[in-house]
Every structure is written in C-alpha cells, then in structure tokens.
C-alpha cells in the first residue's frame, strides 16, 4: 500500500493498546491489524480508502469497517473526518491528465472547497465527492472523461457521482461562468442538501394539500347542490301526493259518490235545526249506514212535527191523512 513508516509505527502502537485491553479476543489478528492500519491512516490524514485496504488483506469491507469502528470506540480515539482533497491527486493520476494533471487537481480542490461551504461534503463519502469534483474539473479543462471513468477510479457507483453533481448543480456557484468561478470568491453559503430537499418536500406537500382542499371543497359544494335539488324534488312529490290523497279520500273514502247523491236527495227533508246541528265535517265523517239512519231519524222528526201541527189545527182530518 506504500503508506510509509509513520503509518506503520502508529498502527503498531494501536495494536499494542488493543492487545493490552483484550480487544483482540474473538477476532482474527489480521482483522485487528487491518483496523489499526486504517486508524493510523485516518489519524495521519493519509489517502487510504477502506476498499483498498480490504482488497489488500482479503477481508470483507463491511467486516473491516465494523472492526475499525469498534477499535475507535473502545480505544476512545477522536479520529478526524476524511478530507476528500486527499484523494484528488491519487485519482487524477489514475485518470491520466498528462501535463495538466496539477491544473486539473487544483481546480478539483477549488470545487471541493466550494462544496464544503455549501454543506455538500457533510455526511458524504469523500471518494464520491472527489470523483464528482474531478469530473467537473476535467470538463472545464476540456478533457473527455465520463461518469463511468471517474466512478471506476474512485470505486463508487455512477449513481453516487451523478447525485453529487445534481446537488452541486442546485447551488448558485454552478450558475457562474468559468472565468467568474476562478475570479470571484462566492462567500454566501447554502443550506445542506438534505434540509433543502426536506423544505422543498414540505412546500410540495403544502401545494398538494391546497389543491386537494380546493378539489374537495368543490366536490362538497356540488354534493350540497345535488342534495338540495333532490330534497326539493322530494318535497314537491310529497305535496302533490298529499293533495292527491286528500282528493282520493274525498272521492273514494268514507264519503262515496253514492252517499253524496243520497245526501243531496234527502237534504230538503232535513230540518234547518238538524242541518245546523250537523256540520259538514260531521256529515263527511258519517259512514253509509249511519247516514241513512240519520236521514230516516230526521225525516221522522219532520213528519212528527207536521203531524203535531195538523193535529192541533185539524185533529180529525190530519189523523186520517197521516
């Protein structure tokens, strides 16, 4: 790996500390040694990726990463974050920029510094950031390098490189021309990409909520209009049905046409007193048998009244006539 003697000495001391504290139990010596080497490289800010160390020792990268995290936690070490600038020179050499390698590397480092100010480097893999910066720097200096080329050198996916480029494309720095980028030092900082994405998502949700509220309000108003219209139709039907029922009761109910004619036929024989005592509503409530009985009763009263009157005037003649 060509890490130098200082990395070897620091890694050996880390291994001694781990051995003294019993951290090598249940773990292979190669795993512990590789974890100590990566600790030393990170502490001395050497451009060593975990993938390179994993390939060199033949250990799974996730197992090696877990070992590194455990050693750092149990040895109480404050390891600084890996600076993406440490990988620029190494990746630039592999991409073969020729005589302009130093110029491209300098431009890539300038881009990385701008990414750090815009919080793009926070929480991101340094190799992915270095790959994105090198791709932009190569295109600035008219080198034909693709996302696949830089992703293969940085050992990251093309999607990771594309994602970093998209995040950088949302910053005001990406809107500057090449001359302005080299001459103007843009001091303003942007919000972290995660915060901007969350804010945009909240705005989109609010817009969707407003649209949904408007649509639901329109649907509710339309539904209310339909309900009111249907209620009016039902009310009209009830009124017409009520009128029809009253007419039907009048014609085909308790007072039939025959009763009506029968009443008109004998009404002249009913005395004024009897008519005044029986209102129209009372006559309408009488059934046919009761009405006939009432008519006969009233007729007999009229006859008796007439007989009584003749009896006093002409007793003998009235008696024979009756």
From TrEMBL:
Its main location: nucleus. This is General transcription factor TFIIB. It comes from the Eukaryota. It comes from Echinostoma caproni. GO terms for biological process: transcription preinitiation complex assembly. Belongs to the TFIIB family. InterPro entries: Cyclin-like_dom, Cyclin-like_sf, TFIIB, TFIIB_CS, TFIIB_cyclin. The keyword Protein transport does not apply. CDD domains: CYCLIN_TFIIIB90_rpt2 (cd20554). Residues 86-170 form the Cyclin-like domain. It is found in: Nucleus. Residues 213-240 form a coiled coil. GO terms for cellular component: nucleus; transcription factor TFIIIB complex; transcription preinitiation complex. Keywords: Coiled coil, Metal-binding, Nucleus, Repeat, Transcription, Transcription regulation, Zinc, Zinc-finger. Pfam families: TFIIB (PF00382). GO terms for molecular function: RNA polymerase III general transcription initiation factor activity; RNA polymerase III type 3 promoter sequence-specific DNA binding; TBP-class protein binding; zinc ion binding.
């Amino acid at each position: 790996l060509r890490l130098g003697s200082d990395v070897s000495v620091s890694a050996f001391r880390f291994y001694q500390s781990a051995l003294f504290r019993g951290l090598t139990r249940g773990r292979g010596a190669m795993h512990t040694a590789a974890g100590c080497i990566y600790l030393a490289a990170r502490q001395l800010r050497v451009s060593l990726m975990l993938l390179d160390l994993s390939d060199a020792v033949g250990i799974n990268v996730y197992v090696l990463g877990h070992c590194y995290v455990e050693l750092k936690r149990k040895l109480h070490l404050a390891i600084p974050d890996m600076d993406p600038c440490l990988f620029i020179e190494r990746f630039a050499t592999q991409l073969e920029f020729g005589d302009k390698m130093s110029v491209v590397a300098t431009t890539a480092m300038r881009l990385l510094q701008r990414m750090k100010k815009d919080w793009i480097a926070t929480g991101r893999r340094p190799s992915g950031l270095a790959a994105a910066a090198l791709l932009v720097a190569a295109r600035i200096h008219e080198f034909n390098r693709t996302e696949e080329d830089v992703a293969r050198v940085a050992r990251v996916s093309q999607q990771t490189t594309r994602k970093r480029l998209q995040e950088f494309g949302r910053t005001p720095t990406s809107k500057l021309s090449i001359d302005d980028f080299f001459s103007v030092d843009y001091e303003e900082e942007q919000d972290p990409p995660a915060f901007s994405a969350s804010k945009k998502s909240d705005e989109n949700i609010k817009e969707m909520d407003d649209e949904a509220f408007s649509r639901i309000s329109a649907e509710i108003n339309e539904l209310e209009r339909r309900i009111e219209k249907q209620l009016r139709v039902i009310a009209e039907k009830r009124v017409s049905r009520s009128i029809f029922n009253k007419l039907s009761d009048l014609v085909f109910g308790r007072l039939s046409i025959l009763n009506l004619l029968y009443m008109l036929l004998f009404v002249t024989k009913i005395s004024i007193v009897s008519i005044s005592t029986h209102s129209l509503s009372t006559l309408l409530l009488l059934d046919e048998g009761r009405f006939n009985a009432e008519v006969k009763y009233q007729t007999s009263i009229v006859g008796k009244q007439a007989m009584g009157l003749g009896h006093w005037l002409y007793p003998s003649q009235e008696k024979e006539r009756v």
